[in-house]
Amino acid sequence: MSSTWFETVAEAQRRARKRLPSSVYGALLAGTEKGLTVSDNVAAFDELGFAPHVAGLSAQRDLATTVLGQQVSLPVIISPTGVQAVHPDGEVAVARAAAARGTLMSLSSFASKPIDEVIAANPRTLFQMYWIGGRDRAAEHMERARAAGAVGLIATLDWSFSHGRDWGSPRIPEAMTLRELIRLAPQGLSRPRWLLGWARTGRLPGLTVPNMAAAGQPAPTFFSAYGQWIQSDLPTWDDIAWMREQWNGPFLLKGITRVDDAKRAAAAGVTAISVSNHGGNNLDGTPATIRCLPAIAGAVGDQVEVLLDGGIRRGADVVKALALGAKAVLIGRAYLWGLAAAGQAGVENVLDLLRSGIDSALLGLGCTGIADLGQDNLVIPPGFVRTLGVARPT
């Protein structure tokens, strides 16, 4: 076994922390305000138990499914995350890992690698975008994604403008100026392997977002694009329906935590929704997504594909999400830790760990595949589910 192999996602996180400068690692832990939601995303899974069998178990388990019209070998796809400066190969390495393990890549519009390079690494790539600059700008981004060959579109709505954290937030520079290099030098020198990895490329960690470049313009910096976003008019449900019509292909709306919003999304004609609170980076105090999932899946699961992201750290978490009504899950921090720890191989390692954990849980539950999963496989404590966006009886 390779010396770079790790046996748990927690170990990938430990190695990422050891390898990365403190500000880079700190950015991976991002959660708004007090971090209530980012903590609950993880802790809520621990409240769910399993109801296993001990005999008559299936010798073979089927983990494959279809997400947004694409066959995947396991019910786990890559969630879009912004500038992946944890490793010089960034999103390209992640795309290759996803392709190698038979699943989908999702590319953020705030990514550090251009969409063409990522799709070349994994032709089954979904392109994610925010509502920036109104319909004309949105149409431009969708056309670029279509021309590049993206197999689906993700519209992300679950990111508010809050960026404060009670415990402090690492400062991310607007650009790598000489002054910033001097300021960050002690951190870089304290992590020589990470610094050497970038030195070998002859480049500095990327702070530009090439997929946000307007036609004929150079790529903006992350914060310049962020500024464009926070100054844009907020999208309406009519805008979402318009996007769906303009794309005319697999369309995932990310950011749903309420039943009424899920119904509005289904009425807008989306292919799928992701029950998401942006990994705890939206409004703090929002319940964990796994708590919101059962009510949403029960309300619209027969109309759209229901996915979940937030808090997935092991294969057992995936199985719990599927048993509560998810078609598949998206992972974010878990694969970023793998990327930081060992590049493409680290991301493959994380996907392998999740696959193994899913298979082990299915074995213990006596299931022949993920299609057999249901709430009867779980021990759900009273009061676990949070049903948001439904009028309570008076």
Give a description of the structure.
The protein has an eight-stranded parallel sheet with strand order 4-11-10-9-8-7-6-5. It has a two-stranded antiparallel sheet with strand order 1-12. By secondary structure, it is α/β, with parallel strands linked by helices. The relative contact order is 0.20. It is 42% helix and 12% strand. The longest helix is centred in the last third of the chain and has 33 residues, at 333-365. The model has no long low-confidence stretch (mean pLDDT 91). Strand 2 and strand 3 form a beta hairpin.
Can you tag this structure with a few keywords?
single chain, 394 residues, alpha/beta, eight-stranded parallel β-sheet, 14 helices
Query: Helicity, in percent?
Result: 40-55%
Q: Give the termini distance in whole angstroms.
A: 61 Å
Rg, nearest Å = 20 Å
Number of helices: 14
What do the pLDDT scores average to? 91
Poorly predicted sequence stretches spanning 5 or more consecutive residues: none
What would you say about this model in short?
This protein is α/β, with parallel strands linked by helices and 394 residues long. It has helices spanning 9-19, 22-28, 36-46, 90-100, 115-121, 134-148, 178-189, 192-199, 222-230, 237-247, 259-267, 289-300, 315-323, 333-365, and strands at 49-50, 65-67, 70-72, 76-78, 105-108, 125-129, 152-156, 251-256, 272-275, 305-309, 328-331, 378-379.
